[in-house]
């Protein structure tokens, strides 16, 4: 490649013993839109964090316009013209300040003037928004009144006024509607025409093919390949993303289904759970798939009573349940493995055995007193059964890898003998070996006649594991597909709000 | 590079050592130092004296421990104790109530303060420090208004004319001044409550639920714990401990001093934070709290023997608190950077 605009070569980065990047590479031309793809945990976001100065690489070099650079902090990255538009726009927006102040935040902070001219500020901000064809955002409005899409535009405008050379878009379309996405794409094309290099991270392949010039696929912290969009197709990219044929890791159902375990009728709650109806039979794995923000987590939490439903009914084995708190759901035989395991599922500073016994303390105590021997033997049991790699049952969970932590989060429910398991993105941030273990576990639960609801945004995973697939879009179930009917393309179509003709 | 790594390791080991054994090392140093300069220090009589002097602070500190365990904090324990002091004294001296009422009513007052705190924190959602700071002033105001600013003692003259009818009964004073099996009664009360708190926190289901609620409220909720209820209970327990401390104080000095608990708040908080790190437990815990109170008590006792003026004691107490906090937070930073 002659003279790439930005080059990242042989980037290594590890956290403790876990290596996140191994000789990772990425090359960006001036004025191109370059997609960075990969399954979760492939190292995309780590690589981008190295580029934007959040982490520094352990080794390897970065060249910008032919010059070797060291990006020691986010500020250095910004000074070099490297900007990032994060998916969580709210982390970068100061909600109390006006739109104009937000757009010019960096220059206000770095500026030497004590006094700030509101007039000048507003006119500069208006100019920037004009370039993005977003003049309709009033610059004096406080930022918290904006929609997500508008906030995103404000962030892009911020990059623009600081004459950004590279803008990283981290899943920008995930929270956007189709219409808003289309608008974003025209902005990206405009940036491209101005010679800005855009790095585009997305899980939505159709849009990647729509706006990107080239595609780089990462896997396991390293480069898999870079492709010209014009000369490749979705199948090739998916194959590159998934690596070797992945589906054989999924065990297949051989047992018959039992009676209907869970029946959800017209359940609504909040904005993201709207009029949901479905059922799960004993021994069945029902996959609930949708893009990030489709309402999967909200549905799981609603069923589990964390944010109780306002309408509709939830039945288990024909009995209507009153679920107002997770404890009601647990009593009814449900178990939730939440998406954010460190934040919601586990007590990471506590010992493995303490975590394992927690949902069912009654079983591990006599009268009021804890029976620590019983706790320990249960912890040993799940370590053996779920192949958890740890030296002892006293190890605090922070010392375990993500996959092993997740196994604890699953295993802790087994003392309750729950009948319905809700898995919310159980393989997020988990290495491939542990992933396969988790798939097997889910299948084992099903074989024992448990009902499993498997929420995931990874389509190949849903395709592999589910007996039946429900596609969610914008808080609703828009399509039900059997295992035989489902294909990657059909799921993606429905999940992004499309319909078959 | 290698040297740097080694230096970091040394530093980390140093911090770990300080965290685990710092408080114990400090205690040993203090004892050795004071023993070497005063013969009166290292005696059985003096040590029972120290234990008796820390009994009230320890009760306060145990209450604070419970709120810290659930991830909260209670600054109002000092004024709650003051209120319970004057309530118990007034019941005896002004109203000549029977002993059981004199003991029960202040505890109910403590429960009420705890309920008020939980209401502010759990239902309304005010951050714990600010909520209990406000409660601290409200309760302090209440207890001064109640006594019209006077301390309560036997047959005191009343503002309405005449003298108060009642006196402190012998049985009541025995709680604060008596001895049992060679130790003062307050020491027995303290030891029993420390052990009870230890067993509850470390060996029962309730303790597990309290710690888990403090450790990760969201995860506890998703494991089926009603964390709001747990927090409610923790603040009520804190109120009860504070009012017990107040009753003990009244019985100890034989009068209802106003503002009795105010100076003890800081000591109690310092005791809990010294106890945080004892033996590297790294969480608020009952035995550590007792140990922390003992460190501070011994330090103050020694300084009294040295004839240091009492108004300088706050400097020492504050310094101990800062040191304990420094060790705790430096360690916490290390710990969290690992995740």
Description of the structure:
- The complex is a heterodimer of chains A (501) and B (339).
- With 501 residues, chain A is α/β, with parallel strands linked by helices.
- Helices cover 33% and strands 25% of the residues of chain A.
- Chain A folds into two domains: 6-242, Rossmann fold, CATH 3.40.50; 268-495, P-loop containing nucleotide triphosphate hydrolases (Rossmann fold), CATH 3.40.50.300.
- Chain A is globular and about 70 Å long.
- The model of chain A has no long low-confidence stretch (mean pLDDT 83).
- Chain B is mainly alpha-helical.
- Chain B is 75% helix and 1% strand.
- Chain B contains 13 helices and two strands, in the order H-H-H-H-H-H-E-E-H-H-H-H-H-H-H.
- Chain B has helices at residues 2-37, 44-69, 77-93, 99-124, 128-147, 170-177, 185-203, 205-215, 217-222, 227-253, 264-277, 286-305, 313-337, and strands at 179-180, 183-184.
- Chain B has a two-stranded antiparallel ribbon.
- In chain B, a hairpin with a 2-residue loop joins strand 1 (179-180) and strand 2.
- The two termini of chain B are 23 Å apart.
- The relative contact order of chain B is 0.18.
- The model of chain B has no long low-confidence stretch (mean pLDDT 86).
- The interface between A and B is medium-sized, with 31 and 24 residues.
């Amino acid at each position: 490649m002659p003279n790439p605009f930005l080059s990242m070569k042989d980037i290594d980065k590890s956290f403790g013993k876990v290596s996140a990047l191994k000789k990772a590479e990425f090359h960006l031309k001036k004025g191109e839109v370059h997609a960075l793809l990969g399954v979760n945990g492939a190292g995309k976001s780590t690589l981008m964090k190295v580029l934007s100065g959040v982490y520094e690489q352990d080794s390897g070099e970065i060249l910008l316009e032919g010059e070797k650079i060291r990006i020691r902090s986010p500020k250095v990255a910004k000074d070099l013209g490297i900007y990032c538009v994060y998916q969580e726009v709210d982390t970068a927006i100061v909600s109390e300040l006006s739109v104009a102040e937000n757009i010019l935040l960096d220059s206000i902070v770095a500026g030497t003037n004590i006094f700030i001219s509101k007039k000048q500020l507003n006119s500069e901000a208006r100019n920037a928004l004009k370039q993005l064809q977003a003049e309709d955002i009033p610059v004096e409005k406080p930022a918290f009144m904006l929609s997500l899409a508008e906030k995103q535009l404000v962030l892009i405008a911020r990059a623009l006024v600081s004459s950004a050379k590279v803008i990283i878009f981290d899943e920008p379309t995930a929270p956007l509607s189709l219409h808003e996405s289309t608008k974003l794409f025209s902005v990206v094309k405009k940036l491209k025409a101005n010679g800005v290099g855009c790095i585009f991270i997305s899980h939505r392949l159709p849009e990647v093919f729509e706006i990107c010039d080239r595609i780089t696929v990462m896997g396991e912290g390293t480069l898999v390949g870079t492709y010209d969009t014009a000369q490749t197709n979705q199948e090739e990219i998916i194959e590159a993303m998934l690596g070797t044929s992945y589906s054989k890791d999924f065990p297949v159902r051989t047992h018959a289904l039992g009676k209907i375990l869970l029946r959800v009728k017209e359940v609504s709650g909040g904005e993201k759970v709207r009029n949901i109806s479905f059922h799960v039979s004993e021994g069945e794995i029902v996959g609930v798939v949708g893009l990030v923000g489709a309402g999967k987590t909200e549905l799981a939490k609603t069923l589990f009573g964390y944010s109780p439903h306002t309408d509709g009914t939830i039945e288990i084995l024909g009995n209507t349940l009153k679920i107002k708190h997770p404890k009601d759901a647990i009593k009814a035989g449900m178990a939730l493995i939440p998406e954010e395991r460190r934040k919601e599922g586990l007590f990471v500073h506590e010992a493995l055995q303490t975590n394992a016994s927690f949902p069912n303390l009654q079983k591990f105590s006599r009268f009021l007193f804890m029976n620590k021997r019983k706790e320990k033997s249960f912890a040993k049991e799940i370590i053996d059964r779920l192949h958890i790699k740890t030296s002892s049952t006293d190890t605090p969970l922070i010392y375990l890898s993500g996959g092993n932590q997740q196994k604890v989060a699953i295993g802790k429910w087994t003392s309750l003998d729950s009948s319905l398991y809700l898995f919310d993105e159980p393989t997020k941030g988990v290495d491939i070996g542990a992933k396969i273990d988790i798939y097997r576990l889910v299948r084992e639960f099903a074989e024992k006649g448990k009902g499993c609801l498997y929420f995931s945004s990874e389509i190949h995973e849903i395709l592999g594991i589910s007996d039946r697939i429900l596609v969610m879009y914008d808080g609703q179930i828009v399509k039900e597909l059997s295992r035989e009917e489902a294909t990657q393309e059909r799921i993606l179509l429905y999940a992004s709000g499309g319909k078959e003709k | 590079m290698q040297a740097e790594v080694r230096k970091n390791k040394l530093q980390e080991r140093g911090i770990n050592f300080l965290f685990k054994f710092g408080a114990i090392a400090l205690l040993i140093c203090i004892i050795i130092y004071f023993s070497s300069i005063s013969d009166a220090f290292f005696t059985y009589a003096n040590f029972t004296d120290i234990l008796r002097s820390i009994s009230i602070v320890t009760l306060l500190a145990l209450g604070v421990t419970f709120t810290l365990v659930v991830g909260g904090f209670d600054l109002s324990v000092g004024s709650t104790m003051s209120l319970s002091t004057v309530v118990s004294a007034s019941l005896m001296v002004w109203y000549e109530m029977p002993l059981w009422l004199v003991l029960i009513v202040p505890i109910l007052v403590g429960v009420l303060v705890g309920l008020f705190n939980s209401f502010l924190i759990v239902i309304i959602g005010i951050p714990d420090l600010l909520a209990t700071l406000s409660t601290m002033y409200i309760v302090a105001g209440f207890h001064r208004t109640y006594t019209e600013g006077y301390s309560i003692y036997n047959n005191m003259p009343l503002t309405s004319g005449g003298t108060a009818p009642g006196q402190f009964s012998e049985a009541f004073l025995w709680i604060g001044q008596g001895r049992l099996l060679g130790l003062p009664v307050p020491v027995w009360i303290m030891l029993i409550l420390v052990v009870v708190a230890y067993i509850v926190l470390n060996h029962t289901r309730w303790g597990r639920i309290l710690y888990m609620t403090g450790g990760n409220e969201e995860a506890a909720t998703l494991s089926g714990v009603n964390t709001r209820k747990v927090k409610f209970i923790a603040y009520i327990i804190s109120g009860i401990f504070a009012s017990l401390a107040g009753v003990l104080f009244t019985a100890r000095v034989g009068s209802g001093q106003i503002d009795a608990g105010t100076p003890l708040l800081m000591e109690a908080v310092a005791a809990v934070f010294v106890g945080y790190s004892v033996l590297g437990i790294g969480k608020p815990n009952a035995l550590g709290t007792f140990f922390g109170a003992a460190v501070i008590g011994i330090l103050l006792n020694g300084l009294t023997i040295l004839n240091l003026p009492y108004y300088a004691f706050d400097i020492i107490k504050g310094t101990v608190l800062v040191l304990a906090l420094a060790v705790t937070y430096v360690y916490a930073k290390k710990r969290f950077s690992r995740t």
